């Protein structure tokens, strides 16, 4: 694949990777971000040979339909929200088009909240909301569509700059999320790739690295009871004792869901917060020391490192080998009392020397499993109780053995 370059026509000047159709459309406020954040993002996409479309110098006289066509030709869209974003009717119209294609299941969208709060975008509040309804947009016939698109896009899983100490780390994760999304598309995957994230950017100094496509699901039957059990094992945040807990279970059983929900509920309690997902795959690519380097964030492994000078909340997802967490075992005495570390794994032997206790996630019971299966199998819930449907549902539930992911996939078939 050739490197990205600019190509121009009488109506537009764009950047795109040659030889492949544009696969990632980047929606952003040009005047605000083009010469800084977006230029750095573009370089990262180019370096990773990710095919993309970035409008570099469109002027108001150009035809918006050109951009609509690029959106239609793309498979993934990055919607980069910033302080001046709502001042641009073009950005907002592009977003409406993006969400239309998302609704048709023809496009996947990843929202990026760059120095703006997720809640302000979702509810059009704060400075973001004032600019949306400001003088330049008063009387606009499309404002209802814009608001609906802004609310809808926040229901998709994304990244927020407040979770990162450096712009570089944010861009690394954006590119990785895009690659994951494109891989899913190339494999013919169905359904939403990145879904809602319930983390406010407010007062948050940690970060999220998502190597998985799962979303914390509060609507899964029995979730609240399982979360309560995990909280009991970890003790409350008044406890001065370090607690390291393993969440163990088969793939699809809900380990990641449970860990993410715990993190989302309690990350505000401690200053140093990190949720790192998909450690198995990242360690394959970058070696077993990748996790240690990620947590140290460029600092030396000594008593002055942030992770040893502060109480910490860590969620480490999908650990597959004890080498990945060996540095935690060797440096356990350095970790501040009152810290909480949650590790999910399929193999409890990979963490048994490190953890204080393990929580084995059991499958859903028959009632919970039927509830979940029926919610995915029947548009009209009344149908599940008629004819031979109850017997068929029970057979599927027995086959799934309480595994939520299996139940959902069977229900969708």
From TrEMBL:
Residue ranges of every copy of the TIR domain listed in the record = 20-182
From the broadest rank down, the organism's phylogenetic lineage runs: Eukaryota, Viridiplantae, Streptophyta, Embryophyta, Tracheophyta
The protein's name: Disease resistance protein RPS4
Q: What does the record list as GO biological process?
A: defense response; signal transduction
Q: What highest taxon heads this organism's lineage?
A: Eukaryota
- A single GO molecular function term of this UniProt record: ADP binding
Cross-referenced SMART domains, in alphabetical order? TIR (SM00255)
Q: Which Pfam families match?
A: NB-ARC, TIR
Keywords, A to Z? NAD
Q: Which SUPFAM superfamilies match?
A: P-loop containing nucleoside triphosphate hydrolases, Toll/Interleukin receptor TIR domain
């Amino acid at each position: 694949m050739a490197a990205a370059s600019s190509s121009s026509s009488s109506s537009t000047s764009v950047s795109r990777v040659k030889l492949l159709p544009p696969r990632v459309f980047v929606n952003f406020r040009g005047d605000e971000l083009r010469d800084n954040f977006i230029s750095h993002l573009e370089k990262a996409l180019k370096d990773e040979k990710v095919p993309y479309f970035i409008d570099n110098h469109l002027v108001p006289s150009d035809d918006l339909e050109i951009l609509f066509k690029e959106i239609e030709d793309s498979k993934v869209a990055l919607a980069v929200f910033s302080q001046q974003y709502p001042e641009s009717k073009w950005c907002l119209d592009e977003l409406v088009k993006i969400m239309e294609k998302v609704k048709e299941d023809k496009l996947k969208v990843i929202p990026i909240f760059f120095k703006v709060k997720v809640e302000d975008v979702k509810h059009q509040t704060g400075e973001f909301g004032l600019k949306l309804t400001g003088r330049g947009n008063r009387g606009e016939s499309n404002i209802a569509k814009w608001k609906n698109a802004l609310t809808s896009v926040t229901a998709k899983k994304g990244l927020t700059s407040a979770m990162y100490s450096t712009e570089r780390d944010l861009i690394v994760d954006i590119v990785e999320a895009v690659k994951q999304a494109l891989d899913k598309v190339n494999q013919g995957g169905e359904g939403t790739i990145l879904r809602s994230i319930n983390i406010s950017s407010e007062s948050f100094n940690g970060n999220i690295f998502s190597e998985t496509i799962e979303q914390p699901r509060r609507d899964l039957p029995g979730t609240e009871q399982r979360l309560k059990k995990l909280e009991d094992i970890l003790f409350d945040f008044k406890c001065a004792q370090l607690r390291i807990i393993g969440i163990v279970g088969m793939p699809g059983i809900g380990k990641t869901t449970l860990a993410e929900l715990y993190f989302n509920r309690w990350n505000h309690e401690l200053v140093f917060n990190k949720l790192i997902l998909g450690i198995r795959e990242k360690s394959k690519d970058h070696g077993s020391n990748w996790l240690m380097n990620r947590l140290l964030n460029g600092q030396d492994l000594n008593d002055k490192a942030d992770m040893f000078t502060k109480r910490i909340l860590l969620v480490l997802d999908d650990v597959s080998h004890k080498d990945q967490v060996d540095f935690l075992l060797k440096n356990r005495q350095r970790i501040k009392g009152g810290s909480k570390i949650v590790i999910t794994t399929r193999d409890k032997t990979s963490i048994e020397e490190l953890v204080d206790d393990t929580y084995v996630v059991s499958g859903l019971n028959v009632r919970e499993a039927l509830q979940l299966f029926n919610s995915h199998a029947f548009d009209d819930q009344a149908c599940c109780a008629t004819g031979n449907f109850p017997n068929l549902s029970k057979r599927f539930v027995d086959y799934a053995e309480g595994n939520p992911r299996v139940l959902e996939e069977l229900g969708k078939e």
